[in-house]
Amino acid sequence: MASYAPMLTLPRFRPSPLLTWRRSATSVVALSLAFALAQPSRSGAAPASQANATQPGGASAAVARGEYLANRVAMCVQCHSMRDDKGVILDSKKFRGGVIPFKSPWPDSEWAYQAPSLAGLAGFTDAQIVALLTEGRIAGRQAPRPPMPPFRMSADDAAAIAAYLKGL
Question: pTM, whole model, 2 decimals?
C-alpha cells in the first residue's frame, strides 16, 4: 500500500514595494555613476581655441581626440599600461606596455599575456597603425592575439590615435 504525503506548497514570494523601490533606485544611481565616470575629464584641459593655437592646422585637436579615444573609447590604456600591486594604472607608465590584467575566458585559446609599449609607436609607421586600427591587421605582419580586438575604426579616428601615441 502506497503512502502519500501531502504536498507542501510554499507561498509565492512577492517582494515588498520598499525592496522593489530600493532596487530601482540603486540601479538608477549605478547607471548615473557609470555615465558620469564615462564622461571625459575636463579638469586641467586647455580651451579648444588655446589648444589649436599651439600647433598649426589643428594637429593638437587630432592629438586631443586621439588621447580621448585611446583612454576612454578604445581603452588601449587598460592593457598597454603597467599597474601597481593594487591594479591601479601607473600614470608614469601609461602606454609603456604591461601584463594583460585578466586571463582568457577560454582555457585552450591563444591569448597574449603581455601588451607591447605603444609610447612613440617605435617600429611602426602612421600608415601601419591606421591599417591596424581600421582593418584589424598590418599587411605582412601577424595579426595581434586576443584580447586585442580587430578594430574597424574610421581612418580619422585611427590617425588621431596614432598622432597621440607618437607624441608620447
Answer: 0.64
| Sign of the four-CA dihedral 16, 20, 25, 27 | positive
Q: pLDDT tens across 84-140, in order?
A: 999 999 999 999 999 998 888 888 888 899 999 999 999 999 999 999 999 999 999
Domains of the chain: 57-166 (1.10.760)
Which residue(s) pair with 115 in the sheet?
98
Mark out the alpha helices in the chain (DSSP H runs).
17-38, 48-54, 59-68, 76-79, 126-135, 155-166
Q: Which long-range contacts (CB under 8 A, 24 or more apart) does 12-16 make?
A: none
The span from the CA of 34 to the CA of 40, in Å, is 12
Contact 118, 133 (CB under 8 A): no
**If you count them, how many residues does the chain have?**
168
pLDDT of residue 14: 61
| Residue that has been written with the C-alpha cell 587630432 in this structure | 62
